[in-house]
Amino acid sequence: MTTTVLQNIRPWGAESVDLSIEDGLVTGLAPHRPGSAVPGGTEVLDGGGLLALPGLINSHAHVDKSWWGKPWVSYGGEATTQGRIAHERTERSALGIPSTDSTELVMKEFLRHGTTATRTHVDVDLGVGLDGIASVRAAAERLGGALEVEIVAFPQDGVMRRPGVLELLDRAAQEGATSIGGLDPAGIDRDPVAQLDGLVQIAVDRGVELDIHLHDGNDLGIFQIELLIERTVQAELQGRVNVSHGFALGDVQGARQEELVAALGEAGISWTSVAPPGRGRLPWASMREHGVRLGLGTDGIRDLWSPYGDGDMLRIALGFARVHGLRHDAELAAAVQLTTTDSAPFVHRDQHELAPGSRADVVLLEAENVQDALLRTPRRELVLAGGRVVVEGGELTL
């Protein structure tokens, strides 16, 4: 049994405590007493009175698509969903995408910024088959489990318009993907009923979850959300369906929006957002009231869709706070909670907290309080993943 005591840390900015860890799990917290003795054979780490957060959770990533670590790639192609798909399909082979090496580098950036678990969409199509999933798994293995990874098999090039993709998604589900994805059933496939029915059948047959990318806005997007709600309830998939992006929810207002949020809550459908400026505003307070679970993610990082991103989930939380005009302390703390405790279900954790029973994922920062940490996004001074030190002084120790 490996025993560690992380001394003198301030969970969520509270009073200093000593946190005990055994075999990768938090086993206890006690008030910090300077000079107090610890049992022989115990590893002692000095937290220096730093603010402590649970490990950050990235609920929506695309780690397989990055050119991180490669020479700079200039942005090209048309700035539409279809244009980005076409550009990526044309250029990805020349960049060696998917690549285990680049995927590993992205994952290391996640860890360096304190992210210890991620839910990542991985492209599955007629060109790459399931190779992207293999690359992601290989990269995660190189990190020895420091970053826990859940895979969503994602049909970035469409489903029904590409015969054979449904079969690939079914194979991915059989081979261990925890979720299968969908993409703009109307806007891309132009057959929302067929796409959703096909995906729901796989989810039912294989016991996996659904995660639907939905960029379509306004009435077209709302129509697809309503179809998804109906099918979720009919197939008894409550708690196993997520909408990614879902810009249409922010396009409607008033009673119609409130009714839709209530229906999402009743169907147990969750939501993930990357909080983009312009289209990232959500009725997040109403979603909390109706039990619509919300998670945040980085989306792609330096890929053929966008040159932006560095893997820092605190920056994503800060973007969410800005988009939604958050000012009060409780609101700012809630934005940080979206990237930590609130996102535990997105990576199938019953709990994710600085408390007994949780995986010992701990992030230490030099900050007065949680609000200060969010607004300044200081470097991560120490990161523990499963009780193992993986970052010191902002740099990886792996």
TrEMBL record:
Residues 104-391 form the Amidohydrolase domain. It comes from the Bacteria. Coiled coil: none annotated. Pfam families: Amidohydro_3. Gene3D superfamilies: Metal-dependent hydrolases, Urease, subunit C, domain 1. One of its GO terms (molecular function) is hydrolase activity, acting on carbon-nitrogen (but not peptide) bonds, in cyclic amidines. InterPro entries: Amidohydro_3, Metal-dep_hydrolase_composite, Metal_Hydrolase, Metallo-hydrolase_Enzymes. PANTHER family: BLL3847 PROTEIN (PTHR32027:SF9), CYTOSINE DEAMINASE (PTHR32027). This is Cytosine deaminase.
